[in-house]
Amino acid sequence: MFRRCVCFLVFITCFKASVGWAEITVSKTQDLSFGTYIQLSDNASISWQDAGDCVVSGLYKQATCQLGMLQINDPGDWWQIGGRYEKVYHFTSGTVTFNGCLITVSNIYLHSNDVEIDGNVSEWNFRSSNEYTNLSISADIQISENCEPGTYTSSLSFSWIARGPADIAHYDSGTVSLPLSITFNSRLSVNQTQEMDFGSIVKNDTGGTVVLSPTNQVAYNGVYAANSATSEGIFAVDGIAGRTVYITLPSEVLLYNENNSTLSVNNFVSNVGNSLTLGGTDISGNGSFNVGATLNIPPNATEGNYSGTYTVTVSY
């Protein structure tokens, strides 16, 4: 007789249930750049169009604006793998301060092609059930003084809260910082168009001076001209029309001959004083000025051809 034995194996599996959602994150994906400019006025502004480009006043645009970008990442709800409840998002912005120049930020805007946003220039609300929601940020700025050339930076802070359906108490919140920048380039140059020349001089035993005016008028004191032409220095300035350019001349320079003997030149003076307002239009500003000086000849000066250089500096 045979007996049949039947065996049963029982497997018990434990299940754990959780209520809530995976952590939502908000991160910066692109800085907000107001562009690169040559500043034409100490009262300039930048504002944004809906198309995403910026309109400027009192500035010459060299590189255009770039929208700031934030991205919301909602990984999904724990009890629905890959699923997402619709969340209500609330964003608020902080204040912005640029150091180094008087630049005021206003009219901050949040835009999105993914969701419809309600709000004003400091608070916004929208709903989204997307895994990724992209936000673009723009703002207007007012520039109230002439900024030195360089890049000015700041940051715009956003606080945010994400809430789920009314029957779920859980919500996420955090802050995200968006870097801001604007760059100003210089538009100012000066070039010599005529060299200063004291001409040929005959000295005596007591020495003397040659005073050359910015209009090429010459006064000889204790020395004599040797029937040669003289010329004042002439300089051309290119810059921003309407801006005042300040001129700095040297206090003294030395001229050297073939044997390394020296003569000194001082009392440099220009025909416009220490400043000049440029004419023209926008960045095609232009002007010119003349320079004269005094050549000092000591009693023991040796013969020769003397030459040297002097530095003229212009600045806004």
List the main descriptive attributes of the protein structure presented here.
mainly beta, 316 residues, Immunoglobulin-like, eight-stranded antiparallel sheet, disordered N terminus, 26 strands
What does this structure look like?
The structure is a single chain. The chain is an all-beta fold and 316 residues long. The chain has 2 domains: 160 residues, Immunoglobulin-like; 127 residues, Immunoglobulin-like. Helices cover 0% and strands 53% of the residues. The chain is built from no helices and 26 strands. The strands form 5 sheets. Strands 14, 16, 17, 19, 21, 22, 24 and 25 form an 8-stranded antiparallel β-sheet that branches. A hairpin with a 7-residue loop joins strand 12 and strand 13. It is rod-shaped and about 110 Å long.
Helix and strand pattern = EEEEEEEEEEEEEEEEEEEEEEEEEE
Shape annotation: rod-shaped
- What low-confidence regions span 5 or more consecutive residues with pLDDT below 50? 1-19
Number of DSSP strands?
Answer: 26
CA distance, first residue to last residue: 117 Å
Helix content: under 10%
Mean pLDDT: 90
Radius of gyration: 37 Å
Number of helices: 0
- Tell me which CATH architecture of the largest domain applies here: Sandwich
